[in-house]
Amino acid sequence: MMQVHEGQCGLCTHFGENGAPDDKLIQIRLKHEAPEDLIEECGHPRHAPLHLKVTPMSGCAGFEAAPETMNA
Ligand code: SF4
């Protein structure tokens, strides 16, 4: 497992946003750690048409904190 920090995709609301609801993503947001080999599509409106794939440790200026991270 890798630590995921504020500003990185794993804690962003757009990480895997357009996929099926996924408990794995919720766990990452709660625990701030993620598997090294995880890749998800970014659902940010500017990335979705490009099908950008990111790791939990990636990041960009479009970061928006996922709601679950705010309760942790
Ligand atoms: S690439 Fe940017 S917008 Fe997409 S999940 Fe990562 S931080 Fe969020």
Structure description:
With 72 residues, the chain is of the alpha+beta class. It has one domain. It has two helices and four strands. The chain has helices at residues 23-31, 67-71; strands at 2-3, 33-34, 40-41, 53-54. A two-stranded antiparallel sheet has the order 1-2. Strands 3-4 form a two-stranded antiparallel ribbon. The longest helix has 9 residues, at 23-31. The chain is globular and about 30 Å long. The relative contact order is 0.33.
Defining key terms:
binds iron/sulfur cluster; single chain; 11% strand; two-stranded antiparallel sheet; alpha+beta
Total domains, how many?
Answer: 1
Give the N-terminus to C-terminus distance in angstroms.
Answer: 18 Å
The small molecules bound here are: iron/sulfur cluster
Helix content: 10-25%
- Number-wise, the strands total 4
Query: How is the biggest beta sheet arranged?
Result: 2 strands, antiparallel
Shape: globular
Order of helices and strands: EHEEEH
Quaternary structure annotation: single chain
Strand order of the largest sheet: 1-2
Structural class: alpha+beta
Instruction: List unreliable stretches of 5+ residues.
Output: none
Instruction: Report the portion of residues in β strands.
Output: 5-15%
Number of helices: 2
| Overall mean pLDDT | 94
- Rg from Cα: 11 Å
